[in-house]
Design goal:
Shape: globular
CATH class of the largest domain: Mainly Alpha
Helix content: 40-55%
Number of strands: 16
Number of domains: 5
CATH superfamily of the largest domain: DNAb Helicase, Chain A
Radius of gyration: 29 Å
Strand order of the largest sheet: 1-2-3-4-5
CATH architecture of the largest domain: Orthogonal Bundle
CATH topology of the largest domain: DNAb Helicase, Chain A
Largest sheet: 5 strands, antiparallel
Strand content: 5-15%
């Protein structure tokens, strides 16, 4: 099950969705034989390496490694979560996504989203009716146009204004409580936001899911955010992202700031690619969202120690997600300044120059790691390696990781475990990949070939026969083979994309994706024979392993084991003759 949506629904959705149509609405595709090619939207390139296969219903970029089904494309291109991408495709296909669970919390979210939308509209109307709120915003240098674009509103003073507007019947009150619009007192509920400038927070589809309120007066906290609800999880959202994408389409760079007012003020000055975290340190979910939406992320923090600690947390969340040419930079502001104040003092052009000169993640990383280390002593350099290696090992495989390790070697004046690329963590990764039946290399073992044929041609699952005689060890990947055969037997008409979506949550998913890209013979008869040969090769491995442990028992004059030994020898000869005959 992918998330909490039934696999059967995902299969039906992908069966009704043509990935070529989905991608063609966003990219310029050109036919090349049985596939379509385009310039990859996920990294900069001059020659097309992005391919879309109608037969497999799958896309892949040979440049940066981006890949997936129509669902995966929307997630990566639009920056959507899995369920949001499914809901978008389902709406286009005329399907209704099943509820995520059972019980009261599974009630349709339509009513809750409607209440949030009505609250946002009322706050915007109230802004027009309260001159003191308008004067406050003018005093902050914000125009009516930018406030309109961001849906800025005003929650008037008073305890029940929103309830009177939206309705005080039990069902509406319950929805407002679920959305975090009301607070519970000792004897009654009351409006959570009062006498505050209101900033609606949108999800990636533009729906209002929460609010941030900025106090006009001195009562209460300066900023007040919606609590966590079924719609809103502050560690997974970014203020302003939907609007930034709406204005600019595919973003090259995203600027991450700390406050709503910073985002709106920068937009007032034409810097419309800013987003804000929601009162938390940058989370891994937010880092993933940022790097799906843009190739480069610039984190903007105060230049004091607190700002640098926040930047370090952002770096740690970002490192594991820096594959495929993605970059991160850090901009530290002068003491006492924030983006809002600085852009007003210096203007947009000087602020943009600051962005262009932001510190590269690699420089910030090594500056931080060497700050209080004695780099002239062996002990100090050993400490540097000890502290840096656990973080660098979280980087995805690729050129950036290799270069970061090389720089660490240079600073440490020491080769790391036999040289770059030879660290225990990397050796363990390669071993794990090999055990899963799909090592990063292109070596076509019988197991990898069988898996590749099944992923690309699920109908072959019906030909697999009984796999009960196979074991892991000695044959690596047997459990994955059995799982894949079972899936393909039950659903022989799946496409490659549907097979991979069924196995999205497995540790072996990335390896199966690589196998889905192997160039295999195209004729049905040839594919069938290749599959039989691959299974024969797997069984030969099993027979040879079984024979290797039998001689000890034969010495003991065990008649039953002698008979088994003869049977295995005969099976070994049969399998070898079969495979030898095919190769002639």
């Amino acid at each position: 099950m992918a998330g909490l949506i039934p696999d059967s629904f995902i299969e039906e959705l992908l069966a009704r969705t043509d990935i070529v149509e989905v991608i063609e609405r966003r990219l310029s595709l050109k036919r090349a034989g049985n596939e379509f090619h385009a310039l990859c939207p996920f990294h900069n390139e001059k020659s097309p390496s992005f391919t879309v296969s109608p037969a497999k219903q799958f896309y892949h970029c040979f440049g940066c490694g981006a890949h997936g089904s129509a669902i995966g494309f929307l997630m990566q291109y639009e920056g959507l979560e899995f369920r949001d991408a499914v809901e978008d495709l389902a709406r286009q296909a005329g399907l209704e996504v099943p509820a995520e669970a059972t019980g009261p919390s599974a009630r349709p979210r339509t009513g809750l989203l409607d209440v949030m939308d009505r609250a946002a509209a009322w706050y915007q109307q109230c802004l027009k009716e309260h001159p003191q709120a308008i004067e406050y915003l003018k005093g902050r240098g914000l125009s009516g146009e930018v406030c309109r674009d961001f849906g800025v509103g005003y929650a008037p003073a008073g305890w029940d204004g929103l309830q009177k507007q939206l309705g005080s019947d039990p069902e509406t009150v319950a929805l407002m409580k679920r959305g975090g619009l009301l607070s519970q007192g000792d004897h009654s509920v009351y409006d959570k936001f009062r006498d505050r400038i209101m900033f609606p927070i949108h999800d990636r589809r533009g729906r209002v899911i929460a609010f941030g309120g900025r106090a006009i007066g001195d009562d209460g906290p300066k900023y007040l955010n919606s609590p966590e609800t079924e719609l809103f999880h502050k560690g997974r959202e970014l203020y302003g992202l939907f609007l930034a994408r709406k204005r600019s389409g595919k973003l090259d760079t995203l600027l991450v700031v700390e406050g709503y007012m910073d985002v709106v003020a920068l937009a007032q000055f034409g810097i419309d690619n800013a987003v804000a975290t929601l009162g938390t340190a940058t989370t891994p979910d937010q880092a993933s969202l940022l790097l799906r939406a843009a190739d480069t992320v610039v984190y903007c923090f105060d230049g004091d120690e607190a700002g640098r600690k926040a930047a370090w947390k952002a770096l740690q969340a970002t490192l594991p997600r820096l594959g495929g040419g993605k970059q991160a930079r850090f901009l530290f502001l002068p003491e006492g300044e924030d983006p809002d104040s600085l852009v007003r003092k210096q203007g947009a052009e000087k602020f943009r120059r600051r962005l262009e000169n932001a510190q590269a993640l690699s420089d910030f990383f090594f500056d931080r790691m060497t700050f209080d280390v004695d780099m002239e002593s062996i002990d100090g350099r050993a400490r540097l390696v000890q502290d840096a290696m656990p973080l660098l090992e979280t980087l995805p495989e690729g050129v950036f990781r290799e270069m970061m390790l090389e720089r660490l070697e240079t600073l440490a004046r020491h080769r790391l475990h036999g040289g770059v690329g030879g660290t225990p963590a990397r050796q363990a990764t390669a071993t794990t990949a090999s055990a899963a039946g799909a090592a990063p290399s292109a070596q076509r073992t019988p197991m990898r070939l069988a898996l590749a044929l099944l992923v690309q041609n699920p109908r072959l699952g019906e030909l697999a026969g009984d796999l009960g005689d196979l074991a892991d060890p000695p044959v690596k990947g047997v459990e994955l083979l059995r799982e894949l055969v079972d899936l393909c037997r039950r659903r022989p008409n799946l496409t490659t994309a549907q097979v991979l979506e069924n196995l999205r949550d497995r540790d072996t998913h990335a390896h199966l994706v690589k196998l889905a890209l192997w160039d295999l013979p195209g004729e049905d008869d040839q594919l069938t024979q290749e599959f039989h040969d691959a299974l024969a090769g797997i069984r030969l491995q099993q027979v040879e392993a079984d024979l290797a442990v039998l001689p000890r028992r034969i010495i003991e004059q065990d008649a039953q084991q002698k008979e088994r030994f003869r049977a295995l020898q005969a099976e070994k000869s049969r399998l070898r003759d079969s495979l030898r005959g095919r190769r002639k």
